Amino acid sequence: MKQIGILDYKTCNAFSIFSSIENLGCDVKLINSKEDFNYCEKIIIPGVGSAKKSLDYLKKNKLDEEIIKFYNEGKPLLGICLGAQIFCKNLYEGGLTSGLGIIDYDVVNINNNFKNIQFNIGWFEITNNQINNLTNYNQINKKYFYFCHQYFMKSNQNPEKESINYKDFEIPAIIKKKNLIACQFHPEKSQENGEKLLLDFLEL
Amino acid sequence: MNRVIRIIPSILILDKRVVKGKNFKNHIDCGDPVTTLITLESQMSDEITIIDLNASKNLIDPDLNLLKKICNKIMTPICFGGGINNFEKAKNIIRCGADKILINQNLDNEVLIKSISDSFGSQSIVGGIDLNVKNGNYVVQKKDIVLSIDPIKYIEKINNLPIGEIKITFINLEGCKTGTDIEYLKKILKLVSKPLIIEGGLGSLMDISDCCKAGLDSFALGAMIFFADNNIFKIKNYLANEGFAARLR
Question: Which residue among A12, A88, A93, A186 is the active-site one?
């Protein structure tokens, strides 16, 4: 039977998203090795972690190649927080590291771009309205989601994305490219709103 | 900076039960942790802080089974603390579903702070500072020991660590519901460049809106939700009606 895979790269919070998906009635599996990818029809890459350490782990175990292969096969992927940032090109947390390069973004320190903000922690309303092909999208738009990060995904280009705006501070909240949904916030920690987003992903 | 206000229940766990006391003493049973947290989530708590008192007092491993049970049932951000004195404990706590680690006694352990920050990011560490009043002056207290450092200097020092947030608890006010020290809070707000959470003394809806007016946006609540006719949703509704940014949907 096909399963929802949660990639466990060790320095991450795989348990919360595992529980959330399981509580939604799905068959979930933790992915620990390359082989585990074969059993999954969809994959979620959780967050809470530091970029360099986590990417080093993925590369050392050749899991990065499997993620790219999975993406190229057109299967749905959901990245959360750091799990979203790894799809970018260059990441600067813990020293410059190359990401998977699927989305044309770099992951940079918030403070270097927005002088008065060191960390983006708390609930923010998603304000822009650019992604419209998620099934329950209207239930997500203008809703609050939980963010907790020091680095953010920055791009000069303008692919499909949703952002949060906070005074003169704007950062991408969801970036969508083909079968990839990259969320800067934590749906598994965003109560009812997060649950709706997860349901959306499960219905893809 | 007026961000969306965070109302954060502060949950003390002793012998697998939720407890609450006064001035860090005389703890009274307040119910089962899992059912309590499910209720607090349904009231739209913005985050929940859990402190394992057994682990903190006896320097034993935190109750990871309980943490897992909680994180299996709720979808609310969790900050977990209690005697975290090595990297292994911190790692297990994150892996069991917590988003952040509260470190208080071991903030001076630079190796520990750096190792957690390197692996999980600085945003995963909340620096806890306990203040008390001795002979009319504020002091920094760690367990029963009063530090000789000036609290203002200590807060400045902690603010410079690679951590994401600072949580300050007024031991002298904790559990008293007599209001917090707004003047001192204003001083602290000037020193801290990171998100700041305050606990201790908050007892009425007006206490919270007074702090909001002073510029504070994050509140850890204990006695106010356990020993008074309040719930998180009511508090947030009140703040929204007062014109502050509170999340209600």
Answer: A186
A129 vs A77, A78, A126, A144, A185, CA distance in Å? Answer: 21, 19, 8, 14, 16
Please tell me which of the candidates A48, A94, A125 has its beta carbon nearest to residue B99.
A48
- B73: nearest CA partner in chain A: A19
Is the C-alpha dihedral spanning B81, B88, B67, A29 positive or negative? positive
CA distance B177 to chain A (A): 25
Candidates A56, A189, A195: best to mutate against B (most CBs of B within 10 A) is A189
- Which of these is catalytic: A40, A81, A88, A183? A81
Q: Which of A105, A112, A99, A145 is nearest to A126 (CA)?
A: A145
Element (H, E) at B23: none
Rounded to the nearest 10 degrees, how much is the dihedral formed by the CA atoms of B78, A83, B161, B192? -60
Closest approach of B120 to chain A, Cα-based (Å): 4
Q: Which ranges in B26-103 belong to alpha helices (H)?
A: 33-42, 53-58, 64-73, 87-95
Three-state DSSP at B42 gives helix
For residues B116-132, give the mean pLDDT: 95
pLDDT given for residue A131 in this prediction: 56
Beta-strand runs (E) in A61-112 = 77-80, 90-91, 97-98, 106-109
Q: Which of A23, A119, A151 sits opposite B195 (nearest CB)?
A: A119
- The pLDDT of residue A133: 53
pLDDT at A138: 57
Q: Round the average pLDDT of chain B to a whole number and report it.
A: 95
Residue A162 has pLDDT above 60, yes or no: yes
Q: How many CB atoms lie within 10 A of CB B65?
A: 10
Rounded to two decimals, the ipTM of the complex is 0.92
Kindly state the DSSP code that residue B168 receives in the 8-state scheme: E
CA distance A156 to A140: 25
Using one digit for the tens of pLDDT, what is the confidence trace for B95-114?
Answer: 999 999 999 999 999 999 99
